[in-house]
Specification:
Helix content is 39%, strand content 16%. By secondary structure, the protein is of the alpha/beta class.
Length: 216
């Protein structure tokens, strides 16, 4: 009842088309059936990282994610997290003990007022029923990976940008690492290596969207 009352006072909007979905739904049914889905039956792999993502970063997905990150549309975290969790459940080779997220820098967190990655990870962990821990800290403010010219530039941009925290929490654990967009995998690779060097037994990754160049 509380959810329905809040929906009457602050009507929930579909993050993709901005229409009001059916009562109790997180997005409208038309969008849910027409989104640019990846093949969620299996995980994908870069040389260093196993990852999964439910959607391609294009069209309405790109627009919705940018609203979430830059326009304070924090209510989008719930439907986005549900999609990520479904992708993790469907994918193979996704073994984990605890969830964590790729953090934004202190500067970006201050200017936005929230860490969107943490919001996504909190929803994913709750849906999957696994603990959530802060295991990474961003040590410097980097330019967005989607603005880099190529994969080499993305790797240089991410190099040395993270450090591990809460070491007793990650020692010997398998980590599910949550990010928003997977472009080349450079950011995730940097985070995975950081966590493994700090004692994690393994790391698998999940994003909300993956760039179309990774299609197939």
């Amino acid at each position: 009842m509380k959810m329905f009352l809040s929906d009457l006072i602050f009507p929930r909007k579909c993050p993709f088309c901005r229409k009001t979905p059916a009562r109790g739904e997180l997005m409208c049914r038309e969008c849910e059936t027409s989104l640019p889905y990846t093949d969620m039956r299996g995980a994908y792999r870069t040389p260093e990282v196993w990852y999964t993502a439910p959607l391609y970063y294009t069209g309405v997905v790109r627009t919705a994610l940018r609203r979430f990150k830059f326009e304070n549309s924090t209510a989008f975290a719930a439907p986005f997290a549900r999609l990520i969790a479904e992708s993790v459940r469907c994918a193979e080779n996704m073994e984990y003990d605890i969830a964590a997220w790729v953090p934004v820098s202190m500067r970006r967190n201050y200017t936005r007022g929230y860490d969107h990655g943490r919001m996504l990870a909190r929803g994913v962990a709750k849906t999957l029923g696994c603990p959530l821990e802060r295991l990474l800290r961003k040590t410097r403010n980097t330019a967005p990976q989607t603005e880099q010219a190529d994969d080499r530039a993305r790797r240089e941009n991410a190099r040395g940008a993270f450090s591990a925290v809460n070491l007793p929490k990650l020692a010997g654990k398998r980590i599910l690492l949550i990010d928003d967009v997977i472009t080349s995998g450079a950011t995730l690779e940097e985070c995975v290596q950081t966590l493994k060097h700090a004692g994690a037994a393994g790391v698998v990754c999940a994003g909300f969207a993956v760039t179309a160049k990774n299609r197939g």
